[in-house]
Fold these 2 entries.
Entry 1:
Amino acid sequence: MRKMMNINRYLSNEDLHDILQGFLAAYPSLIELRYIGESYEKRPIVLMVITNQDTGPDFEKPAVWIDANIHATEITGTTTAAAIAAHLLQNYQQDSEITRLLNESVFYIVPRVNPDGAALAMAEKPKYLRSGVRPYPYPDRQEGLHAEDIDGDGRILQMRFVDPSGDWKSHPQFPERMIRREPTDTQGTFFRLFSEGTVEDYDGVMIKSARAFAGLDFNRNFPFDWKPEADQLGAGPYPASEPEIKAMVDFIVSHPNINFAITYHTYSRVILRPFSTKPDSEMDTQDLWAYQKIGEIGSELTGYRCVSTFHDFLYHPKEVTTGAFDDWVFDHLGIFSFTIELWDLPTAAGIEDRKFIEWFRKHPAEDDDKIMNWLVNNGPEDSYVPWYTFDHPQLGKVELGGWNTMYTWRNPPPGALEAEVQRNIQFPIQLGKMLPTLAVTRQKLTSLAKDTYHLDLVLDNLGFLPTHTSVQGKQRQAIRPVRIELERSEGVTLLEGRYKIEVGHLKGRSHRLSVTSINANSATDHRARAEWVIKAAPGSSVVVHIYSDRAGCIHLPIKII
Ligand SMILES: [Zn+2]
């Protein structure tokens, strides 16, 4: 087996382009590259369509969607998404389950939704944006401090200076480290602590924190519970206003075969699931149980906990996030979706069971020791930079140093990338195994009289998910029921029955998660039957088409003998 890519590295736009072209050259019948849109700066947004093209078109097979790097600096996701693609391609005809998956289903993978933001994050003189580069909400830079690499060393570190009213002080044993000033601290040296940067329109006195110049947050721009700027920062002027997000939205709504979606972010080592805006009690109970079961499978494979964003991942106890991708695809389309926050420095450093958001507000001092010690052995040399003086053009003498966040907090140090990626490759493949899967389990042609036949056809859903994916999808009427159609063809006359039979939805096994063997009822609600009486001459043939939005299509020629 050829090695398609080195997993232990971050991919620039050029690297990614080369890797995808390499995939295409090596596996032309298993992968197609589609350009689903253009970024604000006109970079292509590339979608990998991974399926065996010889077993039918992608849109007639059930699908798993994967995207990454919506947020500019979260480039771990891009390597992960590309590694998942490489794993699928390399294991076709090596691994029987992956062979079956690519024959019967499709993986849609966008390894980089935000090529503009990623280009800046990985530039020699980097800029760390939340999302894209479009100025928003104002066309000019606002008054206040803007993060920037002011000494041109290719890093955006932190900046401090002594101030008696400062809110930070040095750690008593490790003076390089900054710790919060206690409410009762009145004596000692105190610091103001900022990101390295310059102050727009500085009056020599006031340092405000400026609204980001490129202040969009693409993961607030989706059409679920979208809110304007005053209520949800960075959500954009209207839902899907940004070309990167519109490209995703357009593709997903025009591909009803998608049942699962994963969006890769960093960091926290957590699998987040909807809703972000409301409690689990407001989700359909069957869906909740299915979500929990699928999440457990993800947890076992990745070692990440699976939690509801609303219950366990709010940035502020009284504020919810709106316009997020996972909420949109689940709420509107009934797609089981997960936001996977890859990598977590505290967890890697051995801090167990940390509360994701509260930890930043409050944690024992030993946790900081663990992190610093871990970085000494595993981090880049400049993970935490000793403070050095710098002549700031506006602020005079300051010190630069402290956290170099890009390859410590936001993304794993390069040496820890491969392991983080590897532990995430299996979950999407397991999702593939749970897709709804149609099979014709009986086709019986009985001669009734000369040139007259009874055709009896049984269709089963062999998958875990139903053909409506979730109760939510059914309630939203996002998914058309399954249809069985007899093709109108010359020489074949329908005597009894209808050409188009709508059989409704076929269940899988996901609705039986609460059932024990004591009260089991394995009713055949996964099955449908269609019957016709036809007039046809021996030697001719009829064709039956089975259409399902989510479970794919079957085209079945039946020879009259
Ligand atoms: Zn993110």
Entry 2:
Amino acid sequence: MINQRHLDDLFAFLRFASVSTDATYKSQLDLCADWLITKFSNMGLNAELHPTPGHPIVLARTKTDPAKKTVLIYGHYDVQPVDPLNLWTHPPFEPHLENGIITARGSTDNKGQILSHILGVQETLKLTPELPVNLIFLVEGEEEIGSPNLASFIQTHLTELACDVIVISDTGMVAPQHPTFTYGLRGIAALEIFLQGPDKDLHSGIYGGAVANPITVLTRLIASLHDEQGRIAVPGFYSEVRELQSWERDSWKTLPLNDAELLLLTGSPSLTGEAGYSALERCWARPTAELNGISGGYQGEGTKTVLPSKASAKLTFRLVPDQDPETIIERVCTHLKTSCPTSVHMELKLGHSGKPYLVDPNSPYGLAAQRALSCAFPVNAIALIREGGSIPIVATFKELLGVDTLLLGLALPDCRAHSPNENFPLENFAAGILLNQKLLKELAL
Ligand SMILES: [Zn+2]
């Protein structure tokens, strides 16, 4: 049963319109950060507001006992914009509770999840004067805009943030009541290709056949990235790919996620991809080369007999352990340069990148997390999954603080994070509070 005071806290937290991307809401972010400072201080934690060039970072900690392990819990108080507002059934910053579901912007991403950890600590501190671990809360206000000030903050506060393990609840569960531990994430590397053929658009009747069409060259180059089996054909692309272990393949087959469901979710006529792998394996543990945008030539109504002078494409590569974004993008560039005919000039522009992430779910901390998850959600076995997306801060934590992150998500597949009618079930909020209490105990062992 949920405690009314916990619900009041959540509703107060949700009422701040802390939209980080829009300067109109700056004061709401400041007020929301202040609210957290008060909350932490009232719990007896030492709370500090750290201004950044953007939105402030909230840091709160217990007293440090060198005999205890130190756990850092990361979360964010900023939210995505609410547009389109007319699709919300209730105003996004007036939390609405109906049939055990809280609807509000930020309810699942990430206020509901981070607050459940905060309240878990509050409850533990009511029962005992001290926590079983030294605890640091790091709650930022810029996650939804790519955490532009977080890495430099960590770098300048390395001693204060030194810890043994990090916990984040900002990922998903495979289904209601199915405790889920995400132990892997894909990395990313972005690239843009620009081709220039003739120095101006030409008449395709007068010159067509004698002068290369950059769109044709571009599409051939893009097609050369894959072979007929759906594998990426760039030499050396798979050299560092860590193969799936048999326990992963076996356990993923038992998850309440299947191809039929994927088809339904995506609305795609059929599934496709690299031969020899299931759809889940392709999404979670195999790399991809994805075309995200393409442009060139005439885009208006009707026909224009043009032989365009330029064509371009935007690509991203999702990477898996142990691929390194820099090495991979170098191999892709070499492949494109050697495949590009002399009839066009090619320019390649590198975009953002992030490393893949993998942690052993059966390490001592991983097992501690699993024990805590099975107390919080006792009905089903724990789903050990990877996710196809990238959470760059996790790699940043590993790089700067040298520690692993346990991703213990509480969001459901239909929580609509980033969408209208974002929601969070009360039972997950309550389970998160319990999870935190068990987790700190288990991590202390
Ligand atoms: Zn988000």
